[in-house]
Design a protein that fits this description.
Its EC number is 2.1.3.2. One of its GO terms (cellular component) is cytosol. Pathway: Pyrimidine metabolism; UMP biosynthesis via de novo pathway; (S)-dihydroorotate from bicarbonate: step 2/3. The chain is α/β, with parallel strands linked by helices. The chain has a five-stranded parallel sheet with strand order 7-6-5-8-9, with helices on one face. The chain has a four-stranded parallel sheet with strand order 2-1-3-4, sandwiched between helices. Helix 2 links the parallel strand 1 and strand 2. The chain is globular.
Length: 317
């Protein structure tokens, strides 16, 4: 595996191996006063973010540093992008500067894939370019988020296969929803999308999912509920009457949480809009695994970088 741009880059076996590897990293770091492994010493990882991020950017940075890589953060506002530099020129500059891996977030779908093409054409030296990881491209995909969600479900429920996962909210604008639907179904889960018709993408019937418009009807049979943020920054026009109406129809509040089985886990990729798609009481409840997702995100991203840059070798753990 040279890049991780989409869930299509994975097989069920490869995804499971990454989850296993993430747990091995988790165990290897337990009890260490200094959380450092020599795994990627001498490697240079660059995060290239054209959109704001807290969890994804920090977890990739921590993952690289815990494996002794040199991590450099590049943001659009603090780079020559602000002066008008093209995406291609930025990518080629970072390749020339010595990047072994580029972690890319961009508002345009397909941006990470395009960077992988530009930086791996051999270049002037004829040397193949850096590994590229898609950290979220527009409304397309976010594969490492899906992996960390799968790991969280596996830890909470014992397995992903055979579980019923309900994904709720702004499916239309969510790269998280798409990646989770593809990965979780690949791993044997039944995936149900719940959203108003206006927040479902064209062609959703081709996804490996079922679709519902009634949240109350789907909650009692759910093993996991993944709540999505309403992405107002991607909306141009009225997709629902008001935030209050949206919350009434599709928000996870205390009453709705009472419909869930005792074992059901609640996930959210963050940031949470408390009071809209999820109430504070539910967000802070023991069944909600938001902070476990963040912790797992570091180890999943360690596993991904390890696989891409070191070939998944056992040495160094």
């Amino acid at each position: 595996m040279k890049h991780l741009l989409s869930i299509d880059d994975l097989t069920a076996d490869t995804a499971t191996e990454l989850l296993d590897e993430a747990e091995r990293f988790q165990q290897a770091l337990l009890g260490r006063e200094v959380k450092k492994l020599p795994t990627l010493r001498g490697r240079t990882v660059m995060t290239v973010f054209y959109e704001n991020s807290t969890r994804t950017r920090v977890s990739f940075e921590v993952a690289g540093k815990w494996m002794s890589a040199d991590v450099i953060n590049v943001s659009a506002s603090g780079s020559s992008v602000a002066k008008g530099e093209s995406l291609r020129d930025t990518a080629l500059t970072l390749r020339a500067a010595g990047a072994d891996a580029l972690i890319v977030r961009h508002p345009a779908s397909g941006a990470a894939q395009q960077i992988a093409r530009w930086t791996n054409d051999g270049g002037e030296s004829g040397v193949n370019g850096p590994a590229v990881v898609n950290a979220g491209d527009g409304m397309h995909e976010h594969p490492t988020q899906a992996l960390l969600d799968a790991l969280t479900l596996r830890q909470r429920l014992g397995s992903v296969a055979g579980r019923r996962v309900v994904i709720v909210g702004d499916i239309l604008h969510s790269r998280v929803a798409r990646s989770n639907a593809l990965l979780l179904s690949m791993l044997g889960a039944e995936v149900v999308l719940v959203a108003p018709p206006t927040l479902l993408p064209t062609g959703v019937e081709q996804w490996p999912v079922t679709v519902s418009h009634s949240l109350d009807a789907e909650l009692p049979g759910a093993d996991a509920v993944l709540m999505l943020r309403v992405q107002a920054e991607r909306m141009n026009g009225g997709f629902f009457p008001s935030t209050r109406e949206y919350s009434i129809g599709y928000g996870l509040n205390e009453r709705r949480a009472g419909l869930l089985a005792d074992h059901t886990v609640v996930l959210h990729p963050g940031p949470m809009l408390r009071g809209m798609e999820i109430s504070s009481a539910v967000a802070d409840a023991p069944r909600t695994a938001v902070l476990q997702q963040v912790n797992n995100g570091v180890h999943v991203r360690m596993a991904v970088l390890f696989r891409l840059l070191a070939g998944g070798q056992e040495a160094g753990l």
